[in-house]
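This entry is listed as follows:

___
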Amino acid sequence: MIDTLICEYKLPLPEFSEEEKNDLKVVEWNKMSFFSKSLEGEMDKYTISEDGQIYKHLTRNLIRKKIPQKEGELELEEEDMESYPPSDLVMEEVDDGILRLDYTGEIIFYSIIYKEDNFITTQDGEFDYFISFKVLFWKGLLKEISLEEYKKIENKTRKEAQNRMMSTFNEVDKREEKRKSWWYPCFSIFREVTIFFLNFLKNILVWIFTKLIKITIKLRKF
């Protein structure tokens, strides 16, 4: 699994070309979510602070009792949960503070920055940007940070996969809209009746075809 990490500490960025500077000018590096496989790998969130310390964001599961016809929900203690059926309860993950880590070791974190509308530029392009960094911690303090890798990567395959996924989502949305239409219940009944009739007709034809084969065999033996 992968954890996410925000690095508020100043990053050693590469020397960007003019095109890259234009593409990346809206990126807020100290707020960007990076990915890392170097930590616990439990889909947790970490932050490297501006002064070079590392923190883990803690969460806890909160179970609430639904309150009919009222805004909000009633928080329950663990021993009270058995008093209610599961359908009356709702669980959510909430923030539970941060924990400074006394971490020693190397952390590599990376991100892919998509070059297309609504990401970093108003102009579509054939490449995305991949960037990764390496940091070294000693007892929870950042001792060294370096640029690990920076490159342009061809994005044709990624876009094709993304378009296929969006097409699938659109088809699902269309089916859901159909199910909400006033005519859909009537159509469902018609569809089931038609399928039943066609299956029945198929079975009749198979039976007739089987009989004809048996008759043909008997005639040949006669």
Observations:
- The chain has two domains: 3-155, 163-221.
- The chain has three helices and nine strands.
- The first strand starts at residue 3 and ends at 7.
- The two ends are 74 Å apart (CA to CA).
